[in-house]
Write a structure and sequence with these properties.
By secondary structure, this protein is α+β, with helices and mostly antiparallel strands. The protein is 27% helix and 29% strand. A hairpin with a 2-residue loop joins strand 4 and strand 5. This is 6-carboxy-5,6,7,8-tetrahydropterin synthase.
Length: 160
């Protein structure tokens, strides 16, 4: 394989027309990852998580939508803004048992709350009316242990 330096950089309206920037009309998903640190303990649990302890949580958010005329769906910066407002400002470096609704602060409970809070912000910023929606969230409690929530599970109540 031969490598070469481009002789000319494309210029808009000369080398590529604006109406060619959007290549398709398909729904696509973008994913962004974040981390936050928090402490918690579990109630009615006989194991080491009964004790107060902390985690560096890793949150993976996947949002789908349609691309705009430039070929971008949701800008990663917009996802970051929503995350910072809805999640980080409320959970980072906090004692989760105090700042979350009354619940056992398991990853399985937390992920539903995170979904609901992020989804509210999508609505507040009118992203949902533009066709954007959460598709999946993964919350890592440790590098090898995590909970997953998918859109279809949130939309369809399969409670016992």
């Amino acid at each position: 394989m031969e490598f070469e330096i481009p002789k000319k950089v494309q210029k808009i309206d000369e080398d590529i027309q604006r109406d060619k920037l959007k290549y398709h009309h398909k729904r696509v998903a973008v994913t962004k990852e974040f981390t936050f640190d928090a402490a918690h303990h579990l109630h009615c649990y006989e194991g080491k998580c009964k004790n107060l302890h902390g985690h560096t949580y890793r949150l993976v958010l996947t949002i789908s939508g349609f691309v705009d005329p430039v070929g971008i769906s949701m800008d990663f910066g917009d996802i970051k803004k929503i995350y910072k407002e809805a999640i980080e400002s409320r959970l980072d470096h906090r004692y989760l048992n105090d700042v979350m609704p009354p619940m056992n602060t398991t990853a399985e409970n937390m992920i539903v709350w995170i979904w609901e809070e992020f989804d509210k912000k999508l609505d507040q910023y009118q992203w949902k009316e533009k066709g954007f929606r959460l598709e999946e969230i993964v919350l890592y409690e440790t590098p090898t242990s995590y909970a997953t929530m998918k859109r279809e599970w949130m939309e369809h109540d399969e409670s016992l």
